[in-house]
Amino acid sequence: MEGLFNLNSILLHMLNAAILGAALYFLLYKPVNKFMLAREESVAAKLEEAEAARVRAEELSARYDSDAKEAERKIAAIINDGTKLAESRADEIIALAREHADAAQKRARADAEKMVLEARETMRDEAADLAVKMAAKLLSHDVSSNDHARLINELVEGS
Fold first, then answer.
1. Which span out of 98-107, 123-132, 135-144, 148-157 was modeled with the highest average pLDDT?
2. How do residues 18-32 score in pLDDT, each as one tens digit?
């Protein structure tokens, strides 16, 4: 059986395999190793970028949350200021309305007093006219001593 287990053939196959392995090692090891290192660096760089992006996203999220809280605080302050301003303005309007009402009331009282004075003056003038007319009528008749005494008494009692 020389053909199947020939020592020379086995040694030649082993030598052939060793030469082939050495040739493949020298021909392929550096390019494959270089490719694997490049791939490893690429993955590491992408992981670093992803981590940096995550950190940036967290920072932006924190900043946006802070900005949102600040905006809410400003909005609350603006609403509070607006409410205070509206209340102040309402108080001013009420005070002004009261002043106008007081002034209108004073004018109305003054007008009423003026009307009363005018009415009294008119009544006094009319009473004087009536007195003059009565006196003229009475004087146009003969005045007796009894009429004269009665008129004097009425004038004294009327005063």
1. 98-107
2. 999 998 888 888 888
Measured CA to CA, the distance from residue 146 to residue 85 in angstroms comes to 84
The whole-angstrom separation of Cα 25 and Cα 18 is 10
d(CA 50, CA 48): 5
Block residue for tokens 């082993």: 14
Task: Report the amino acid identity of residue 18.
Answer: A
Tokens for 84, please give them. 């205070």
Q: How far is CA 27 from CA 14, 16, 32, 34, 38, in A?
A: 19, 16, 9, 12, 18
Diameter over CA atoms, the chain = 199
pTM comes to 0.42
With a CB cutoff of 8 Å and minimum separation 6, the contacts of 147 are: 138
For the record, the structure tokens of 29 come out as 């090891």
User: Quick check: helix, strand or coil at residue 69?
Assistant: helix
- What tokens appear for 55 in the block? 């950190």
pLDDT tens profile 77-126:
999 999 999 999 999 999 999 999 999 999 999 999 999 999 888 888 87
